[in-house]
Structure formats: structure tokens, C-alpha cells
Amino acid sequence: MNAVTPAASVETSIERAPKNYLTEGGHTLKSWLLTTDHKRIGLLYLFSLLFYFTIAAIAAAMMRMELITPQGDMVTSETYNKLFTIHGTLMVWFFLIPSIPAVLGNFVLPMMLGARDVAFPKLNLLSWYLFNAGGLLALYAVMFGGVDTGWTFYTPYSSTYSNSHVIAMAAGVFIAGFGTILTGLNFIVTTHKLRAPGMTWFRMPLFVWSMYSTSVIMILATPVLAMTLALMSIERLWGVGIFDPKLGGDPILFQHLFWFYSHPAVYIMILPGMGVVSELITCFARKPIFGYHFVAFASVAIAILGFLVWGHHMFTSGQSIYAGMVFSFLSYMVAVPSAIKVFNWTMTLYRGSISFDTPMLYALGFIGLFTVGGLTGLFLAAVGLDVHVQDTYFVVAHFHYIMVGGMVTAFMGGLHYWWPKITGRLYPEKLGRLAALTIFLGFNLTFFPQFVLGYLGMPRRYHAYAPEFQIYNVMSSAGASILGVGYLLPLIYFLWSLKYGKKATANPWKATGLEWQTTSPPPKHNFVETPVVDGPPYQYSAEAAEAEFKKGEIYG
Amino acid sequence: MADAHAALQEQFEEMPQQKEAATLGMWAFLATEVLFFGAMFMSYIAYRNAYPHAFAEASHHTIVLFGTVNTAILLTSSLTMALAVHAARENNIKWLFRFLAITIFLALAFLAVKGLEYREDLREHLWPGPHFKPELPPQAQIFWVLYWIMTGVHALHVTVGVGLLSTMAWLTSRRKFSADYYTPIEMSGLYWHFVDIIWIFLYPLLYLIQRYSS
Amino acid sequence: MKSTNAQKKNYIRVWIALLALLLLTWGLAEVNLGPFNNVAALGISVAKMSLVVLFFMHGRYEKPLTWVFIIAGLVWFLIMVDLTLSDYLTRGDVPGARQTWRHAEKNPPTLQPSTNLETFH
What we know:
The complex is a heterotrimer. Chain A is mainly alpha-helical. Helix content of chain A is about 65%, strand content about 0%. In chain A, helix 3 (about 40-65) runs antiparallel to helix 4 (about 75-95), helix 9 packs antiparallel against helix 11 and helix 13 runs antiparallel to helix 14. Mean pLDDT of chain A is about 95; it is low at about 1-15. Chain B has a single domain (about 40-215), classed as Cytochrome c oxidase, subunit III, four-helix bundle (Four Helix Bundle (Hemerythrin (Met), subunit A), Up-down Bundle). In chain B, about 75% of the residues lie in helices and about 0% in strands. Chain B is elongated, with a radius of gyration of 21 Å. The model of chain B has no long low-confidence stretch (mean pLDDT about 95). Chain C is mainly alpha-helical. Chain C folds into 2 domains: about 1-60; about 60-90. Chain C is flat, with a radius of gyration of 23 Å. Classes of the chains: A mainly alpha, B mainly alpha, C mainly alpha. At the B-C interface, helix 1, helix 2, helix 3 and helix 6 of B face helix 1, helix 2, helix 3 and helix 4 of C.
């Protein structure tokens, strides 16, 4: 444990209902909407994200309902196009990209560093407003006719032929993107400049390394997306664009520019999850991480290498074969640091003192599901195989295994882990485990059949399909309904816990890390005194934990 | 606790830390701007590589005089901005204000020249679309689209710069800055120099393609 | 940093150098140097940028960490250019491939889409 003993007042404080960031700083709506407290901003993001997640989930539910039967009999193909576009754009830009960074990162990162807040608290609030301004435009696009280009906005359909609200959605993503850039900028400067005394780079929790790497991607990739969407919109508005083949333009240039951002973006959508998993595995195996330096550098390597592989989304687009080979090779390279992390988590589990609390269930689920997703990515990185499975359900299954099986699972794990810190309440553990198992089963039933479907040749983005594919589609839709129940459960019991959950102590998990050295919920300025750090992170002892377990003293 | 500086924000321990954070933050922001403009430069590179002759011909219709004068104006404005920061460091608030004012004036001059140039370009039917100058090959429209977008986005950044520097001038007149604290002036300077650097690259790419054959 | 007057003189010197480079880049564009026109133009722009970064933006006095940020922005832009060009410069480098970019200028597309497939070989 980092050598800081919590002040005596921290332990007894739950009895006195101390002042904390929820009670200090005002109760009014205005005090929340004008807050610069990173903890409150994290919660503001949580509410916004829940809203957009719900809309995108409803779109998915409608798609899965349509796909129960081979005929396109529930919605027209135009409507179906709008459903998968809404699902994709909202899930990517208005849920996954912010998710862990904006909610857990905002809340926990300054505390992990021993800081009072992020480097630029007002910019932090501005980020949230930019996110919502973009979200409102996206909502307008959804409600007033939808968008049907797919989340990838490929030209010339998006720039010339589509009759939907492309520009509104693109503008929404553009504006929200600047919120992302500011968040990334904030985290980078905070990590460099606001670490507590004694907190060297290699004493930081791995969650911070992940957030830092994610932030580097955010600030370097997102501007390119912004300009690309702007160029596409200009072409759409004035017909004077640069992707128009009639004038000698190249639609593939759009794809290069789009994927230069969007591939690194998928690393924005997994690195934070990996950071959470490092925290969970160490805590619930009661062991220091195996190979701290390797995991830390792997995060940075993923961020950098992730910028070199975007052409693997374009193998079948008309890109040159030589470029395809280069991108394929680089894509195999980028898998290496991810694999290193999986090995290191596994070795951390080995000879650990493992308990299966809800956060750990999610972390273990992450390791398995992310590995499946990552390996199938390598299938896709092989040009020859990609020719057959590109634009099929194989791709859909691959990225859902990583984004849902990986990132969303890690988000759930992190939410459960830090819930006591954020709210001062414990969620009901048994229900937590039940939900985690439900999600795991529902998820696999939904998405594993999609690998088979893709391999057998069912194209993605189609609402009608050949009858021989029906059995797998029915399995997938059944899984989706179970998955839906699995996600509803935490929504219900988290809300329940706010009023009826057991009050939490400062450190219910007996975890290391500076965020656990202060009250639950924390005071407005996080720490009564600035902590001083004099040791590495994850000072757990599996042997000691086993001894305690045998004596019957389990934490709770 | 020792007297905290009036401008010290509560998440920082001391002023040098705050200033270093501001500097890092501004350079990180400028890196994002490099990528933002970078997407347009990438498009330019791709198409100039594909259509070198069409681009050269199209570029001959830009007005070199305006472009060169504007480059000189921006380079000079960078000088006056640097001198403004220097004046702040020397606690010479009078000259800080004056150099800021001159920089703003030069920025407005840039925009004025740009405006005149745009008017000429439009008169020459250099706006892409159905009425584009028929003597030019079709791919010349791609050059001109990029011209309008790149100079347009740059001009937007100049305009934002005018707003930013005007705010700095106003705050200067309200005695907010001294040799002890002038970080916002420096940060504004970094932004302004960046705007200049973008133009330094735009100028040869847009105005000087094979001028020997025009 | 240098004394105040020396600093000011330095700024003026840099400014004069920048204006000189401006005239140079304009002058060279009027001379046919073949491929070196591009090299010269870009090289002079890079030189001007370096002067602005080092002297006007005080890059000379900045810490190595700041330089990491500066270099990163430039390197990332170069990554985008480099790998994208790996596509554009190698299109048609497979025997029997269709009409490529390099030939496109000699056979510019007409403004009406062609219905005659014969023209697509």
C-alpha cells in the first residue's frame, strides 16, 4: 500500500455524514451545471452517456427484431439503414469514446495522482458542454428523419446521394470531437504537472498510463476526423468537393482521412478498459501486477502503433495492393502489445488470492472476450482472408467482442469497483454477480453466432438475408434480449443503492491507490492534506490475503 | 501558507507549475491544430501528386502580389507579437499594449488584402461549380476548392486571433498583466505564431507552383 | 535569456531573415529548377518555420518535454502523409491493373459519366 495512513477522521467519518463533494459546493442545479469539480463533471457525463446509450440500444433492439426473420418485413431497407447508422454513430461517439475517460477518468484520475483537480477545470466543464451540444445536433438528426450512410459516412453516398440529415450528424460529431480533444489535453497536462510529491511515472497506477495513452490518441487523431467531416459536408453543401470522381476526385481519399482517425479511435475505445482491468485484477487477486513496466509501455506502444494500421479497413476498397501489404504487416505488429497485456494479467492471476466479486467477474470476462475479439482481428488483418469476410457479420462480431465484451464490460467493472467511492454506498453484491453472469451469457449468445454467419457469407448492414442463416440470427436476437436484461439490472440496483445501499467505508475493497485513502464520497478537494508517495503501486500480498481468508477474516 | 499569487488557481501549488502547465497545454493544442490543417494538406498532396499540370495551371491564377504581401504582413505581425511578449517581460505595459495593437492592425490588414483577393478570384470565376472558369482543366477545380477551404479556414483562425489579441489588449488596459504575470500574453503569442506558420506553408503551395511558366 | 536590447535586436534579425527567405522563395519559383523547385520551396518553408518556433515562440528555451509535443505534432502529420502516399504512389503497380493516377492526367475524365465501358481499360 502506498505509505499514507488515512487520517483517523476518515475511518469514523461515515458515522458523521461528512461534507463531501456531493454536499459541499451547492445543491442547486446551477451549482452542478456550472461546476468545475472533476468529480461532479464525471457524474454529469454519466447521465448524458446513459441517455445516448439508451437511444442507440433501442436502435439495436429494433435491428435484432428485424433480423429474426430472413425477410425484410419489419422495417424498410431505408429505415434499417438509418437504424444501424444511428446505432453506430451514437454508440461510438456519444457513448464509447467518452465512456471510461469522461466518467471514471474524470472522477478517479486526479485522485489517483494525489491532485485536487485536473489542470484545466474550466476546460473540463467546457468539454461536457461541447459533448452535449454535439449530442443535441445528433439527436436532431435522429429525430427528424435519421441518417442512412452508416457511421462511416463513406463518399460519394454521404456527399452526393444520401437524402438524410448527414450534415447535422456530422456537425454533431465535429463539435463533440472538440470536447474529446479538450479532455485528452486536460489529462495529459494533469499527468505531467499535477502528480503528488513522490508520485514518479513508474509509481502511477496503470489506469493512469492507459488514460495518458488514450489522451495522446484523442488529441492527435480527432482533429483529422473533424476536418474530414467538414470536407465531406462542404462537398455535400456546395457540390464543389474533393471526393467527386466526376472532377477527378478520389472517394478513397475520404477513407484514408476517415480511418486515419477511426482506427486510432478504436484504441480510444479499448485502452481505458485495459487500464480498469489492471486495477481490478491486482485488487481481486491481491497481487502486484506482473511486469508493471511492460504493461505501462504496452499502453504507449498501442497508442503509437495504432496510428500506423488504418489501411486494414480498406483492403477491398481499391487501395493499392502494396499499401495493403504494408498495413497488414503493421496490423500484426500492433497486436503484440495487447497480447503482452493479456499475458501479464494472466500471470498476475497465477498464484494470486482470487475472489469473485462483481468487479472481478467483469475483469475476467474482459480477458476472455477481448482475447477472442483481438485474435479475430488478426484473421481480418490477413489480406487474403479479409477479402472473404470484409463487410460480413464476421467483422461485426469481431468489433462487438472488443467494444462490448471488452470496453463495456470493463466500464461495468470499473463502475462497480468505484461505485462506493463515487456515491458512498455499496451496491448489492449478489445482484451484481447475477447481472455480470447474465451479461456474459447474453453477450456470447448474441455475438458468437455472428462469427459463424460472417464466415458463411452473410453481409452486414442487410435487413434481409438468405433463409439458411436464420438459425444463427435467431440465436443472436435471443442473446440480445438476455443482454438487455443484464444491462437493465445494474441500472435498477445502482439507483436503489443510492437510497438503500449499505454505507461504504473509505476503502471497502482494501485496495491500494490514493483514491482509497480518502473518504467515500471524497471531499470537494479530494484530500484533507496532499498525500506523499514513497512506494510502488499494488502493494498487495496474496499470501497475507490467503492467511486472512483461512482465519475467516474476509473483507466486506 | 505564504501569500498566494492573485492569479494562482487552486489546483496548482505555485505559479511556475501553473505556467508550465499552461505552456504544455498550449503546445498540445497547437499539435492538434497541425493535424487539423494536416488533413487539408494531405488532400492537397494527394491531388497535386496526381495532377501536377492541372495544379500548376490552376495556381497561375492566384495573385502572387497579394499572397506575397500577405506573407510579409503576417511575418511582421509575428515580430510585433514577440516584441509585445518581450515588453511584458520588461514590465513595459505601455509598449505591451502598443505592440498588441499593431499586431491586431496587421492581422486586420491581412484580412483586408484577403478580402480584396477573394473578390478578384470570384470575378475571375474561380469558384468551383458549374460556372468555373472554362479555360481550365476539370482537375483545376480541385486545386481551387482546396484554395478556398485552406485559406478560408486559415482566415477563420486569423479572425479568432484578432478576437484573442483584442481581449488581451483590453485586459492589458485594465492592468491585469505585469512582468510578474503575463502568461496569457505568451500563450496568445504561441497561437499567433502558429497561424503565421500555417500561412508560411500555404504561400508556396498555393501561389508558387511553376511560376516560371505562367 | 539575453539582456533586453540584445533580445529585441535578435527578434529584428530573425524578422529580416524571414523576409529575405520570403523573397528567396518567390524568386526561386520564377526559375525552372525541375524537381528542385519543390525541394527548395518546402525547404525554405521549413527554415522559416524553424526560425519562428525557435526564436519567436521561444522554442530555444523550452524543456525537452515541450519539444516532444512539438515534434509529435509534426511526426504525426508525416505519418499520415507517408502511409497515404504509400497507396497513391503504388497504384497500378500490379501487372494488368486498370487506368492509374499517373495516366489520369493524359486521359482526364469528362464531366459526363461515361456509359461506354470500352473507355475503362
